[in-house]
Amino acid sequence: MAALEFTRRYAMAHRLLATRSPKCAIPHGHNEFVTVRLDPPAPFRFSETNSAAPFEAVKRRWHEWIDEHVDHTLHLGENDPLIAFFRESEPGRLTQIMTFPGDPTTEALAGCFWLKLSAFVADEKLPFSVREVRIEETPTNTVVLTRDIFDPATCGLRRHAWPWRADMSINDF
After folding, report:
1. pLDDT tens for each residue of 123-154
2. What is the pTM for the complete model shown?
3. Which residue segments constitute the domains of the chain, with CATH numbers given?
């Protein structure tokens, strides 16, 4: 079995308050690419199917989530005052707000993507595990999480938060 890798493009906006960067404190957007790499449970060996699972079966749910729930979302920290504004003035848009503990950095996004993809893989009983999540924020800025530097068990995100769930959620509203 061979490792699988696939890429998806989406648009998003965020603002970073805790990092105290004047430029990033203003809501701004990016057109990002996320590339994920999944490892099979065993090395590749020729067989009748020559694959662990059909490529489409592995990427279908992930692509649906990115295309229908992540694309064109606003990423905010859970304590961002803009959330109160949306609750009061535009509650129908809360489904388009992705939330994070702390700043919605690309690093935090990569961790949330890892957890969500892992939840999808487990829920679908697919014979793969996440090896890498790569997010290209801009043509010159990319974040890469690998098993060597990311351990879901010790990542510090509460266990019932939206990234852990195999549903289409992007927040806990």
Report:
1. 999 999 999 999 999 999 999 999 999 999 99
2. 0.95
3. 4-40+52-164 (3.30.479.10)
Contacting residues for 27 by C-beta, under 8 A, at least 6 apart: 13, 14, 15, 74, 82
What is the side-by-side order of every strand in the sheet holding 28-39?
97-100, 73-77, 4-14, 28-39, 129-138, 141-146
- d(CA 114, CA 138) in angstroms, rounded, equals 20
* DSSP code of residue 106: H
pLDDT, tens digit (0-9, with 9 covering 90-100), for 34-56 = 999 999 988 888 888 787 777 78
Q: Are strands 129-138 and 97-100 parallel, antiparallel or unpaired?
A: unpaired
- The two structure tokens encoding residue 144: 């890469």
Contacts of 139 (CB under 8 A, 6+ apart): none
